[in-house]
Design brief:
The chain is mainly alpha-helical. The chain folds into 2 domains: 186 residues, Orthogonal Bundle (Farnesyl Diphosphate Synthase); 137 residues, Farnesyl Diphosphate Synthase (Orthogonal Bundle), CATH 1.10.600. It contains 16 helices and 2 strands. The longest helix has 28 residues. The chain is globular, with a radius of gyration of 21 Å. The two termini are 31 Å apart. The model has no long low-confidence stretch (mean pLDDT 94).
């Protein structure tokens, strides 16, 4: 078995070998720029891992891995446009470095190129994988729309929030591992179980991100905590905090949300104090752990050796149980 890092390096080498050389330059150069500014390459790496776990040829799965990475980056380019974000991974976003029209077209062509790479797959699996890919693509768009809708909604329920992060984040992670398993000739049951494992892993991963954004140490998480608080982003913590404040006739949180002019440092400190008063960190960890447990339950039923299951167990530790 290859390590996660070895699989990532194999994928990156393939990604680099498939860089865009076509004209017009102004369409393809932005994609080369965006694809080279980094990222964890998590989804394609997990696709290759899943293939190898079930005894398949990881090199035959590389086109599927690249298809997933192209789709993921298509969503990032368009997300940056919708958010008017100036920076991604410490570099200028495509619409900032080039222009809005170029960003839209470059994202579009990445989506189409993703479908092109699917066509390189073994015909035995192509129809099944194509159906998973297209279903997932639609779900990711649905999740993005829900996230946009949240910006103008005063209240968002716990269940609706979970559905949003499932669609926006988890399903692509889950589809990646399911596709990898299919290419490794896993049974239908095992491919479905690894989807359930990865879907719950993705939910736990996103909830941990919510927790770390508020309570993480800057040196450990790589960014200044409190960004979600400043933006009034509806996370699992904010949703539950609003509920607990209402139950206690506590208007402080709503007052901070309503403020148009404020000191960012003070807002983060005051809102964090409210979260601590209502034990939101502990709440978030309990919700996160419930999805970890569901991931592990799915893992128990996958027909893999204990040695190979340990790889998936360690993946939970690596992705979710990150330090504060």
């Amino acid at each position: 078995m290859n390590s996660i890092e070895s699989l990532r390096e194999i994928f990156i080498k393939y990604l680099d070998s498939e860089s865009f050389k076509e004209e017009p330059k102004n369409l393809y150069e932005p994609n080369n720029y965006f694809l080279q500014i980094g990222g964890k390459r998590l989804r394609p790496t997990l696709l290759l891992l899943s293939t190898e776990l079930f005894g398949g040829d990881i090199f035959a799965s590389l086109p599927a891995a690249l298809s997933i990475e192209y789709f993921h980056n298509f969503t990032l380019i368009h997300d940056d446009v919708m958010d008017n974000a100036p920076v991604r991974r410490g570099f200028k976003t495509v619409h900032t470095k080039y222009n809005l029209n170029t960003a839209i077209l470059s994202g579009d062509v990445l989506l189409v190129k993703g479908f092109q790479y699917l066509s390189k797959l073994d015909e035995r699996h192509l129809k099944t994988i194509f159906d998973i890919y297209t279903k997932t693509a639609v779900e990711v768009c649905e999740g993005q729309q829900l996230d946009i809708d949240f910006e103008t909604q005063e209240q968002v329920s716990h269940d609706v929030y979970i559905e949003m992060i499932r669609l926006k984040t988890s399903v692509l992670l889950a589809a990646s591992m399911q596709i990898g398993a299919i290419l490794g000739n896993a049974t239908i049951d095992d491919a479905n179980l690894i989807y359930q494992y990865a879907e719950n892993l993705g939910l736990a991963f996103q909830i941990q991100d919510d927790i770390l954004d508020c309570f993480g140490e800057e040196a450990l998480v790589g960014k200044q905590p409190g960004g979600d608080i400043i933006q009034n982003k509806k996370t699992i913590l904010l949703i539950e905090a609003l509920k607990r404040c209402d139950q206690n006739n506590d208007v402080r949180l709503k007052e901070w949300i309503a403020k148009k002019s404020f000191s960012a440092t003070e807002k983060v400190a005051q809102v964090k104090a409210i979260f601590e008063q209502y034990q939101l960190k502990e709440y978030g960890i309990s919700v996160r752990n419930s999805y970890v447990q569901q991931a592990m339950k799915a893992l128990e039923n996958i027909q893999l050796s204990e040695e190979r299951k340990i790889v998936l167990e360690s993946l939970v530790e690596h992705l979710v149980v990150r330090e504060f």
